[in-house]
Design goal:
This protein has ten helices and two strands, in the order ββαααααααααα. The chain is an all-alpha fold and 259 residues long. The protein has one domain. A hairpin with a 5-residue loop joins β1 and β2.
Length: 259
């Protein structure tokens, strides 16, 4: 609205600035994620259970770890949390939004499609920060002693990991039916959690570790553990994540269907 010389108001229609639209979309996406019980189970409950169960199991099983179990498992579970949110939760939510026509309607709104995707990524980052706080508190309570530098190194690691898994999640959600996306996302999540070297280091899997090094889960796990165990940047792992992010984004851009 603008004020005319006589003191009256005249309409001034127009879309809000792009940044404001993205912030509003991210806030809405965050609320939707936090209100969904199934998404919270995947995002918070399962990683916390894996962390506590893994630390307790390490007292009775030989996991072939080179450092204390809590120091190895906590970074792995932080990586698992990124994967669970950026891939599984995003794929399932987007798949059903696409099925019910929500994406089509949003795509025709004043918010550009790039803004919609930016809002989704923003919501993922907010949820991942909350996950990191919860998991870190649990880890500290179990005796976790990370390298302080790791809290700086983890920023680019989490961003690249989010980009890689979000692009793959959007590719899945944009090409399969909602029910197939639900099944595939959960199956891939379970397979990578068990055998993708995200929670446990690649050394625990013997010769299969060479294959896990080129998987996004293995790269994210390697980079996260390097950050918190030694305070170092695993450039090889970051390069693997970058390649997956680029390939996933290219495929999602090419094959994603909005309806």
């Amino acid at each position: 609205m603008s004020t005319a010389p006589n003191g009256t108001f005249t309409p001034a229609p127009g879309a809000a600035p792009f940044a404001s639209q993205v912030r509003a979309q991210a806030a809405m996406e965050t609320r939707l994620l936090l209100r969904n019980g199934e998404q919270l189970l995947i995002a918070v409950a399962i990683p916390v259970i894996v962390l506590i169960g893994g630390v307790l199991a390490s007292r009775h099983l030989d996991l072939k770890l080179t450092s204390r179990a809590v120091d190895v498992l906590t970074p792995g579970v932080l990586a698992l949390a990124v994967m669970s949110t950026a891939f599984t939760s995003l794929a399932i939510a987007t798949g059903f939004e696409r099925r019910y026509g929500l994406l089509k309607r949003l795509g025709s709104s004043p918010l550009p499609r790039s803004g919609l995707l930016a809002g989704k990524v923003g919501a993922l980052l907010v949820v991942e920060v909350l996950q990191g706080i919860v998991i870190s508190v649990v880890g500290f309570s179990l005796g976790w002693r990370p390298d302080p530098v790791g809290f700086l190194v983890i920023v680019p690691v989490a961003l690249l990991g989010t980009a890689a898994f979000a692009s793959l999640g959007l590719l899945l959600a944009g090409t399969l039916r909602a029910e197939a996306t639900l099944a595939a996302a959960n199956l891939v999540y379970l397979l990578l959690m068990a055998g993708g070297a995200v929670v446990l280091p690649r050394s625990s899997y013997g010769g299969f570790g060479a294959v896990q090094a080129i998987l996004p889960s293995g790269a994210l796990g390697d980079a996260t553990r390097a950050a918190f165990l030694t305070g170092q940047v695993d450039m090889r792992a970051l390069l693997v994540l970058l390649v997956w992010a680029m390939v996933g984004a290219a495929l999602a851009t090419r094959f994603f269907r909005w309806e």
